[in-house]
Amino acid sequence: MSTAEELREQVRQRYAEAARSVSDGAGCGDGGCCADYSAEQRGELPEAATLASVGCGNPTAVAELREGEVVLDLGSGGGIDVILSAKRVGPKGVAYGLDMTDEMLALARTNAADAGMTNVHFLKGMIEQIPLPAQSVDVVISNCVINLSTDKTAVLIEIARVLKPGGRVGVSDVVAEDHLTSEQRAERGSYVGCIAGALSRREYIAGLEKAGFERVSVEFTHEVADGMHGAIIKAVKTSEPT
Ligand SMILES: C[S@@+](CC[C@H](N)C(=O)[O-])C[C@H]1O[C@@H](n2cnc3c(N)ncnc32)[C@H](O)[C@@H]1O
Predict the structure, then answer these.
(1) What single-letter DSSP state applies at residue 198?
(2) How far, in Å, from the CA of 100 to the mean position of ligand 1?
(3) Which of 33, 44, 87, 229 is 20 to 30 Å from 119 at the Cα level?
(4) Nearest in space to 133 (alpha carbons), one of 70, 190, 53, 39
(5) What Cα–Cα distance (Å) separates residue 229 from each residue in 35, 148, 149?
(6) Helix residue spans in 92-235 (DSSP H)
(7) What's the Cα-to-Cα distance from 8 to each of 30, 132, 191, 197, 214, rounded to whole Å?
(8) Closest Cα to atom 2, ligand 1: which residue?
(9) Residue 203 CB partners (closer than 8 Å, separation 6+)
(10) Percent of the chain residues topping a pLDDT of 70
């Protein structure tokens, strides 16, 4: 196994374990992440979906979803953001969740059924190779997942591919201050705990611009380790031909 495959397997095992522990009443992981949902949003969700949340923000709060839109959540975990998105886009819209971990997919499907959602689909796959056609999605959201990818360039290119021209991305992630080297990031926490693999602010902006996005912003919301922050990243896929 290559180092990237080993890391991916560690990530998969870590989140399979997190999915299993939800049935024991544990929640919110042990990494540097912790999600930020309002009491009103929590009230819209089955308890297991809230317990399964291991994100680092609340992308549905920043993505400005509209009725009838198609939304894709990368690394959907227990399904919390997919369920909230499905409610925002309504019965004429669709919310897809994509995850590589069977245990998380099973949990998400149960949570969506418990919430009575009919406009959600959970797909098994990698965020580096999204199993959806080009230009089929209005909004991509994600909550504390892109830092876990071993090929972030591929993820950003895939997001650009599946979005319609003018489509939006609004994600939460852990982001490092620009001065931190990869070694310094690794000293602050583990890869599977969302810290060691984090991009810096400058790297995130450059990666999104190179993939064909404009109006890119990376806003730090809360510090999760020295020089490492929960952040909201927003961008719009350019409508210019490439
Ligand atoms: C930190 S959890 C976040 C889950 C969810 N977004 C939330 O906020 O609760 C990371 C999730 O991403 C999934 N994941 C990590 N890397 C992935 C990849 N490369 N492709 C697909 N899923 C991935 C894991 O299986 C896990 O469910």
Answers:
(1) P
(2) 7
(3) 33
(4) 70
(5) 13, 15, 17
(6) 102-114, 152-162, 182-187, 201-211
(7) 18, 21, 10, 12, 30
(8) 54
(9) none
(10) 91
pTM score: 0.93
Q: How far is the CA of 17 from the centre of ligand 1 (A)?
A: 12
Question: Can you tell me the distance from the alpha carbon of 213 to that of 84, in angstroms, rounded to the nearest whole number?
Answer: 25
List C-alpha distances in Å: 3 to 8, 10, 14, 92: 9, 11, 16, 43
Distance CA 163, CA 70 (A): 10
Q: What does the alpha-carbon distance between residue 63 and residue 170 come to, in Å, rounded to a whole number?
A: 5
| Inter-CA distances, 111 with 105, 114, 187, Å | 10, 5, 36
Q: What is the position in ligand 1's atom list of the atom closest to the CA of 172?
A: 8
Residue 99 Cα to ligand 1 midpoint, Å, equals: 6
Q: Ligand 1: does its nearest atom lie under 6 Å from the Cβ of 101?
A: yes
Mean pLDDT, the chain, rounded, equals 90
Pocket test for ligand 1, best of 99, 102, 157 (most atoms within 8 A of CB): 99
What percent of the chain stands above pLDDT 90?
A: 78
Between the alpha carbon of residue 87 and those of residues 59, 78, 93, 179, 186, the distances in Å are 14, 16, 9, 40, 38
Question: Rounded to an integer, what distance in angstroms lies between the CA atom of residue 214 and that of residue 68?
Answer: 24
